């Protein structure tokens, strides 16, 4: 990627630019502003006071509380921040106000330049119904469907028969796949429309919906365009964005492997590019924009306009990597009135680039978003430098909030060809370390190494089909051994400061003769319990470990650094990243007769990570008892909120008879709606109402089965003994 800093002695493009966004995109924009010699202003909510974009900007302004509606979406607050800092232009990033026509008008009225397209472009392309009908008049092919403003649910249901099933419900406003729902049959349409309207209203402030025919085995291919205010419009090639989950892109690449594999791929690329440029010309577009198309995998010469994103895209780095053009720089230059210095003939795609979006989520739990604090961070290992770029807003100590989107960073790799780019990305993800939070990095590695993905056989339904085939790595004996040995070493280190050579003050089982084995109880994130017995010295050196009563294994734990343990277990050596968090007295307290502290240990390697708790006897017993309160394999009757959020709907009433799998209520968190279902048949008791703010793991409903298990209490004592809780 190249930049063209303002020559010395000339007037800057702008004096001060305010970045009306947060997270990795705010950091990315600030980076180019710095290269151009432009003063940057960050804005932040209370939740982002210590965020990375705040630290990297030249100055920063608080604009409100955590809720986006009271901060990043508050037009008056952004305008006032511009006035307070003397900003003469605003870069909106993506999301939030980036495609808001009222925001553009307010900036225009205040005499502040909007680094984006004009009001006409935002007005036409910001509404999917209007944009679809508009571009059809300029020779751009569109997907068959019904797209008329103001249609009620009843009207949409009536029109659906003419569209055909399966179909896709789409919100007219907004983007990013939010509010989009696939409907397979007529009987599912009414309930799905209600959900789609609710999500659209919450995310975009507009619940207008329309219907499109669902193109089977489609590929999502988009074209990057650049247009100035002097009539020049060019495209920078296409991006393949077919690997999606819930209509959200996960992996993006440039160029498209589909077009690269076809003899007439260059011709199709030219046709796609011209259609995209025509869409941009139809609204006198200015700046960087993206035109998205559905392309039939079986008939790639057929493509259909979906929408135009009148902003920078999340996946813009892959285009920058293969063209060498800084899109943010050209957004700024075009907004300042400059004419494009490149023509269509100048655009050459060199090599291949692939981007992976890193989310704070748990793929094994249906990609449930996750919150937490980053306790150890290393996003770009030395082995990946040169061909890898990481766009991120993470910092050690940063708290991931439930108020915003769960995407936390992007890892972008370049290679001479697609295979090399994928290999480079895999290597970079293997070295990606973000301990303290759950991420999808392990899943990303599984995905990009799938045989169909490697072969370029992509479509928007691939992730859903492949997910059941992926096997996620469990916590193994090696990780349990590392955690136990590290915990013992911490305890011994703390004790050395007090014992002054008196062996009678030791709390590690010292006795005359051979040292007594020491047991460490560890809790896993799924509520499980593991026992590790260690014989030998704790602070390094050869020991033997036994996990959950298993065989004695030879182990040696060494450290290349405090947070980099290397374990040799039965001759096999594995390197880890490690971080520990303490919320109470010194680490040794957990070994005391009445321990009070539960240190947490975070381990990771090869893009995988886990969290383990060093348990007191009381905590271990509590976990064991909780596991046997019901019969093994029985469903938990308590329905809990997966994370902090807001209850947006309740579908049943107290006393209703419900069936397993029936939707009970919905919670909105991290810009997503999570439907909570009954875990078993029975009678429901609801303990939350629409509009309630709820905490993570809060019980929102309870199912009372028709007949309670008769032998649950009888098995408690037996199970406790079997699990070794009485030690």
How large is the radius of gyration?
28 Å
The amount of beta strand, in percent, is 25-35%
Q: Any idea what the shape is?
A: globular
* Structure class: alpha+beta
Question: What is the quaternary state of this protein?
Answer: single chain
The largest sheet has its strands arranged as 29-28-27-26-25-24-32-31-30
Low-confidence stretches: 5-9, 585-597, 708-727
Number of helices: 19
Q: Mean pLDDT, nearest integer?
A: 87
Q: Helicity range of the residues?
A: 25-40%
Alpha-carbon distance between the termini? 61 Å
**DSSP strand tally:** 40
Describe the fold and architecture:
Strand 25 and strand 26 (542-547) form a beta hairpin. The chain has a 9-stranded antiparallel β-sheet with strand order 29-28-27-26-25-24-32-31-30. The protein is globular and about 90 Å long. It contains 19 helices and 40 strands. Helix 13 runs antiparallel to helix 14. 26% of the residues lie in helices and 30% in strands. With 727 residues, the protein is an alpha+beta fold.
């Amino acid at each position: 990627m190249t930049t063209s800093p303002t020559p010395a002695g000339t007037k800057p493009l702008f004096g001060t630019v305010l970045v009306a966004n947060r997270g990795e995109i705010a950091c990315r924009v600030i980076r180019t502003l710095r290269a151009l010699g432009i003063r940057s202003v960050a804005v932040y909510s209370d939740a982002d006071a210590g965020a990375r974009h705040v630290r990297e900007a030249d100055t920063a302004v608080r604009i409100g509380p955590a809720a986006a509606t009271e901060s990043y979406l508050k037009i008056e607050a952004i305008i006032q921040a511009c006035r307070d800092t003397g900003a003469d232009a605003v870069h909106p990033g993506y999301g939030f106000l980036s495609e808001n026509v009222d925001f553009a008008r307010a900036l225009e009225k205040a005499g502040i330049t909007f680094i984006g397209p004009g009001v006409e472009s935002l007005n036409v392309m910001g509404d999917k119904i209007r944009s679809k009908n508009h571009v059809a008049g300029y020779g751009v092919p569109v997907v068959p469907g019904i797209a008329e403003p103001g249609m009620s649910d009843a009207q949409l249901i009536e029109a659906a028969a003419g569209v055909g099933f399966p179909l896709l419900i789409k919100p007219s406003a907004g983007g990013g796949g939010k509010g989009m729902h696939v409907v397979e049959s007529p009987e599912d349409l009414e309930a799905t429309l209600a959900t789609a309207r609710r999500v659209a209203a919450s995310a975009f402030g507009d619940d207008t919906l329309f219907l499109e025919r669902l193109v089977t085995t489609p590929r999502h291919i988009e074209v990057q365009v650049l247009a100035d205010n002097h009539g020049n419009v060019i495209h920078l090639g296409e991006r393949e964005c077919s690997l999606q989950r819930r209509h959200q892109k996960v992996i993006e690449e440039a160029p498209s492997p589909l077009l690269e594999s076809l003899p007439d791929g260059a011709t199709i690329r030219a046709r796609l590019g011209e259609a995209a440029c025509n869409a941009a010309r139809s609204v006198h577009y200015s700046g960087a924009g993206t035109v998205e198309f559905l392309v039939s995998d079986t008939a790639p010469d057929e493509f259909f306009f979906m929408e135009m994103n009148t902003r920078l895209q999340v996946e813009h780095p892959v285009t920058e990597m293969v063209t060498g053009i800084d899109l943010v720089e050209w957004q700024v230059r075009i907004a300042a009135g400059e004419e494009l210095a490149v023509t269509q003939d100048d655009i050459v795609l060199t090599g291949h680039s692939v981007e992976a979006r890193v989310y704070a989520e748990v793929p094994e739990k249906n990609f449930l978003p996750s919150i937490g604090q980053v306790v150890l961070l290393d996003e770009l290992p030395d082995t990946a430098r040169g061909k890898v770029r990481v766009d991120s807003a993470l910092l050690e100590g940063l708290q991931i909030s439930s108020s915003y989107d769960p995407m936390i960073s992007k890892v972008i790799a370049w290679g001479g060809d697609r295979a090399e780019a994928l290999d480079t990305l895999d290597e970079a993800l293997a070295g990606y370390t973000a301990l303290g939070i759950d991420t999808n990095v392990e899943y990303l590695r599984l995905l990009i190494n799938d045989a169909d993905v490697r072969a370029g056989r992509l479509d928007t339904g691939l992730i859903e089909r492949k997910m059941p085939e992926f096997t996620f790595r469990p916590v193994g004996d090696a990780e349990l051994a590392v955690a136990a040995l590290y915990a013992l070493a911490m305890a011994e280190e703390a004790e050395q400061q007090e014992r002054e050579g008196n062996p009678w003050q030791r709390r590690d089982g010292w006795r005359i003769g051979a040292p007594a084995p020491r047991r460490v109880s560890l809790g896993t994130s799924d509520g499980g319990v593991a026992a590790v017995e260690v014989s030998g010295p704790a602070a390094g050196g050869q020991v033997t470990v036994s996990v959950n009563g298993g065989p004695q294994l030879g182990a040696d734990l060494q450290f290349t650094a405090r947070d980099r343990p290397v374990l040799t277990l039965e001759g096999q050596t594995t390197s880890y990243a490690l971080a520990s968090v303490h919320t109470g007295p010194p680490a040794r307290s957990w070994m005391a007769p009445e321990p009070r502290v539960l240190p947490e240990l975070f381990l990771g390697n090869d893009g995988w990570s886990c969290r383990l708790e060093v348990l007191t006897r009381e905590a271990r017993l509590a976990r064991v008892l909780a596991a046997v309160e019901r019969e093994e394999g029985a469903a938990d009757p308590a329905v809990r909120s997966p994370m902090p959020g807001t209850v947006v709907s309740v579908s049943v009433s107290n006393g209703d008879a419900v069936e397993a799998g029936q939707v009970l209520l919905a919670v909105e968190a991290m810009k997503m709606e999570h439907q909570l279902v009954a875990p078993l048949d029975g009678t429901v008791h609801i303990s939350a109402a629409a509009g309630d703010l709820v905490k993570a793991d809060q019980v929102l409903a309870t199912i009372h089965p028709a007949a309670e298990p008769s032998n649950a209490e009888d098995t408690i004592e037996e199970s406790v003994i079997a699990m070794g809780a009485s030690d």
